[in-house]
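Tokens as discussed.
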């Protein structure tokens, strides 16, 4: 169960990120990959108990929700995105909660974890976030399907890094997983990691299209072996996005990888997480399975936009005792 360790002073200061060595990857170990299994029924039973294990209330809950905000990748991935929309989203990223609510909570300096956009919107996002310390993340490699020519996928990463993206969310070729071609997946991920250079890379597995939890576990491990800084559930465009069974499978792969190599890899659930109560469940899962280090934006992110609006409503309720209309908390 998530331990309620927060207190009222937690509202005055956000958690500090603890530096960790970047995952360099390691040679593909097929013995390890083949040994990975997933007990689906046990995973689903464990996942079904998670929503009932949330126990934080009042000031403690407000502190945890502030923590969740600091881990959001505030995202816009629409075909009608404009520089103006992105600039408004970046303004929200800089001040994700209304100033009067923050003042009442004693919270200052709260920002989201990153702003995530398509390549064409990197420049306005970088400009709008200048001096804030908030990184720009770009989706890449033929997002969301990942089926464009390979050389173009690699070139897209390089162009996005050149444009100022500090993080790159790549999509893997799902057919490598579905056909069990782990060498091809490993080689692809290594090339993508190399193209990122100093920019951190999040490997999107599109778990709703991988068929089984065993495939999810093996794909997670192979991507980490190839040097992924984060593994991420979904593009947000699949029929099924982040779920608790998938999350449990992926974070246990992260735990096994750290136990064997000593390197920490981040986790990003994305798609379908829109309520504050869901954020609390995911935070409790991370704390239970991986520990406090994974409750900070350098190792945990939510891929979401509407989630922020609901958290802001909950924080205003904590301050005023009343729920406000959603239109009082616009994204831009």
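Sequence:
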């Amino acid at each position: 169960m998530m331990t309620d360790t927060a207190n009222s002073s937690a509202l005055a200061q956000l958690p500090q990120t603890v530096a960790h060595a970047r995952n360099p990857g390691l040679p593909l170990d097929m013995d390890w990959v083949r040994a990975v299994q997933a007990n689906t029924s046990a995973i689903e039973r464990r996942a079904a108990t998670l929503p009932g294990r949330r126990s934080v209330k009042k000031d403690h809950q407000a502190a945890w929700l502030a923590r969740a905000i600091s881990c959001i990748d505030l995202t816009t991935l629409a075909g009608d995105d404009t520089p103006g929309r992105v600039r408004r989203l970046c303004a929200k990223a800089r001040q994700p909660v209304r100033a009067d609510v923050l003042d009442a909570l004693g919270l200052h300096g709260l920002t989201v974890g990153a702003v995530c956009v398509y390549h064409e919107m990197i420049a306005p996002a970088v400009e709008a976030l200048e001096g804030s310390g908030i990184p720009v993340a770009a989706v890449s490699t033929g997002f969301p399907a990942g089926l464009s020519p390979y050389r173009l996928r690699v070139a897209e990463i390089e162009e996005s890094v050149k444009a100022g993206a500090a993080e790159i969310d790549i999509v893997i070729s799902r057919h490598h997983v579905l056909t069990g071609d782990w060498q091809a997946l490993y080689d692809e991920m290594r090339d993508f990691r190399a193209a990122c250079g100093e920019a951190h890379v999040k490997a999107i597995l599109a778990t709703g299209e991988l068929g089984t939890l065993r495939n999810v576990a093996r794909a997670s491990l192979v991507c980490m072996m190839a040097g992924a800084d984060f593994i991420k559930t979904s593009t947000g465009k699949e029929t099924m996005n982040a779920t608790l069974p998938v999350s449990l499978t992926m974070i246990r792969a992260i735990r096994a990888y750290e136990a064997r190599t000593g390197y920490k890899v981040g986790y990003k659930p994305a798609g379908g997480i829109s309520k504050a109560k869901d954020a609390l469940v995911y935070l409790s899962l991370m704390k239970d399975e991986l520990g406090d280090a994974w409750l900070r934006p350098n190792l945990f992110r939510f891929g979401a936009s509407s989630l922020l609006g609901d958290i802001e409503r909950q924080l205003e309720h904590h301050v005023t005792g009343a729920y406000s209309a959603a239109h009082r908390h616009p994204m831009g």
